[in-house]
Amino acid sequence: MAMNPNSACYRFLVLFFNCMLTFGSYFCFDMPSVLQEVFQGPIECVRNSTANHTDNSWYNLTSSCKEGLGMSSEDYNLLYAIYAWTNALVVIAAGFLIDKLGNRIGVFIFSTLCVVGSSIFALGTMFKGTKYMLPLMLVGRLLFGSGNGSLTIVQNRITAFWFRGKELALAFGLTLTVSRLGSVLNFFVTESFEEKFGLNLTLWGGAVLCGLGFVAAIIVSFLDVIGVRNLGQTESMAVQSKKMRFTDIKYFTGSFWFLVLTIMFFYNGVFPFVADASNFIHDKYGYAPDTSSYFAGATYFVSMVASALIGIAIDFVGFRGILAVTCAVLTLPVFALLAFTYVHPLVATIWLGVMYSIAAASLWPSIPLVVSQATIGTAMGLTTSVQMIGIGICNLIIGALSHKHGKDPIPLYRWKYMIIFLFANTLACVATSVMLNIVDRRSGGVLNFSKMRSERTLPLKDPDEIQDREDEEEAEYGETDRLLGPDGKSIN
User: Which of 367, 374, 380, 371 has the alpha carbon at shortest distance from 471?
Assistant: First the structure.
């Protein structure tokens, strides 16, 4: 007997394979962070002699030395910057194409890019000590970034369709939980695996996990297509896709744009910190590299455990806008502790993980509430693009602040400058989240509805209602203003 697409069982089956789309890619994303010592270690270890980096700078070696790829701090942070900049350029177009062409095409293209990109990245390390290594690794990160950021958009679009008006925050929380499970496993197993099997095999293992994501893409695509067809939504979604134009972004409300800025500034504090957290903890607090990786990974571990539970609470309580301000304000002490005290780093990374969980479960599920169903992909793409522009700039600035050659640790005053810079980004997040609440209140307060009130008030709670309402507005107002309501305001 075929499963009913209207049932909770079917949509949670879709959610399971949808979550698996990014498990492997999130594992791969922060592999350079865990392996930073290897990436920046000398190409050759010769006792009481010298060795060189890829930029031809020379330095003295100590008696203990671990061979690596010889990257400078700038080269290492460039691996993250190129990922971010690629996302910034690609995801806008990717989101629009997903809205136009549908989930099935998008999920295949972008999961393939993740596999190809991670494979080229692993291949680059086989050219250690040559001029081809860094370009190959950068090309790999470029393709990987093109796929992973865009794949997340498809993932969020599928989640928004199946869970809008239902367990939306829970579904987003579970998606983040599985993704961060990949990140946490990376922090806990990658370094030990590399010590036992070597760098090349470790990075190829990451590529294999991205291949598992491609398998999940095949299954979730099948479930999504069959489910939409059985719901009778195929033709209506095709009509909406044909009507969708990129210029429709001019109808996005002020709430959407302040939501975008709030997401950007918050993530500017989290992702760049985690990328360098292992080395920071090792240099400032003196812990061994593997212990430092565990402490750094605590941020993602907490988000993995807490995101789904927080999502359930947000689905019930609501008040997403107020939660955005709250988690931004409560993140400020994290960076203050790291910059100016020697409080155990695990306190800060766990605290950051809790705030990150609240932010992710409240901010991203807010996007489908302030844009129409037909523009979710484009909205997600714009949000991801702005987010990655911010992260890319932050990675470049942090690379300059933590400039390092040789085995000497980065001076602590440079680390302090880096943490203060992240503190400033979080302070900007506080300002934009306050503005988000002000603008949202003036436009109806959709972000701060509680569950009981939203059930009576919020529009567009299921796919049939979405289409019926959009068809009525299309006939009444015409194609050019179909995102506007009768009072000239956004229907969202």
Answer: 374
